[in-house]
Amino acid sequence: MSTSSGQTQFRYTQTPSKVLHLRNLPWECTEEELVEICKPFGKIVNTKCNVGANRNQAFVEFADLNQAISMVSYYASSSEPAQVRGKTVYIQYSNRHEIVNNRSMGDVAGNVLLVTIEGVEAGDVSIDVIHLVFSAFGFVHKIATFEKAAGFQALIQFTDAETASAARNALDGRSIPRYLLPEHVNACHLRISFSAHTDLNIKFQSHRSRDYTNPYLPVNASAIEGTLQPALGPDGQKKEHESNVLLASIENMQYAVTVDVLHTVFSAFGTVQKIAIFEKNGGMQALIQYPDINTAAVAKEALEGHCIYDGGYCKLHLSYSRHTDLNVKAHNDRSRDYTLPEASILAMQHMPGAASAATTSWQSPPMYGAMAQNPDRAQMPAWDPSMQAGRPAAYMPPGSTYPYAPPPYSGAPSNQAPMGAGPQRMPMYGNQPASPAGMPTTSPPGY
DNA sequence: AGCACA
């Protein structure tokens, strides 16, 4: 009722407790890692890991109050903070005095796991990949996959709860190895709990469900569809279907990426016909259409893993799209058809949808006007310095050394020019929100 | 970076 000072006063006070509250833990933090940093201070009687919406908090209960006090005092005066996987962990007394492990549904062990695969859509992770990953722990009887609000999910049936628990303990919070996934998938964390099911009812062998105990189960027609677009070939090699349309997923998107930005980047390899930018699973993706597969292949090869902006910002992951001709209906900063003549563009701008999209545009596209007036310019296959008018960026023309600085990550392609070789500064675009106030926006971040 | 579970 009353928001008396008595309540708020105690919210952040540090009444000692055997239970410690740890926060800012890495998402993947395991119970072992938690125990590792706590056990020097005393006997741990209980833990609760991966707590909270971000799964980055934990509770640790010591046998004795003094042990908890010793840990808190140690890190209160230590120059080295507590760390897990390089992340500073903040430790306080919990406002409760014991951990209650309410083993709710999802935590009561059973032989069927409910696996949520975060950061992917259904097509990204094949049932064969799931089978491969979980078979490491024992015979997988059945798999059923489905898409819900929570995302792409799978029910995985093992022989017994022991096997299922082993798989859960090993894989919960972990990622499926990158080489088993399409290239545009950045990360896909597995969130695993126990299902209440004990025996899945699989009716067909299909791309959505499998019964490995019954190879004679009828094959659903939709399974054929699944074999038409295999993420992996029979030998386990990546088998991508080439296309003139590239699917780009943009990782670490600190800065705005508009069609203009993408057009400039991808035009270095040939005529860009159409671009569509959209959001998928909280990340940004774009489809870039070239006239032919060869151009797309060159662009894909050259740009994969590279960043639009220096410093690891807007890292590109490219794969071939299933599309061959994009249906671009709006003309705004998220979608553009460069093959259209001016009249069509003007007509499009009066279409519903184009206007609303324009209001969300905080970055006016400088190339837009020039191209609308001269459709031939839109067909310009490659580099044209005049297209950069008003742009502070120093762009590398195609044919020069790599215009795009290699990403600083370990996953970077090894066959690319090393950082600092040649004039490798990333192209920059105006109006970068992260630029320090008052600073010219021509300097790349990190300068 | 700021408290779970019913």
Record keyword descriptors for this entry.
447 residues; 6-stranded antiparallel β-sheet; 5-stranded antiparallel β-sheet; 12 helices; disordered C terminus; DNA-binding
What do these coordinates show?
- By secondary structure, the protein is an alpha+beta fold.
- It is 23% helix and 21% strand.
- The protein has helices spanning 5-11, 31-38, 65-77, 127-135, 161-171, 221-228, 259-266, 293-303, 342-349, 354-359, 366-373, 375-378; strands at 19-23, 44-51, 57-62, 83-84, 87-88, 90-93, 112-117, 140-148, 151-158, 190-194, 209-211, 245-251, 274-280, 283-289, 307-309, 313-320, 335-337.
- Strands 15-16-12-14-13-17 form a 6-stranded antiparallel beta sheet. A 5-stranded antiparallel beta sheet has the order 10-7-9-8-11, covered by helices on one side.
- It is flat.
- The model is unreliable at 1-10, 224-233 and 352-447 (pLDDT under 50).
- The chain binds one DNA strand of 6 nucleotides through residues 11-12, 19, 21, 23-24, 48, 51-52, 56-59, 88-90, 92, 94-96, 99-104.
- This is RRM domain-containing protein.
- Its main location: nucleus.
- Residues 407-447 are annotated as: Disordered.
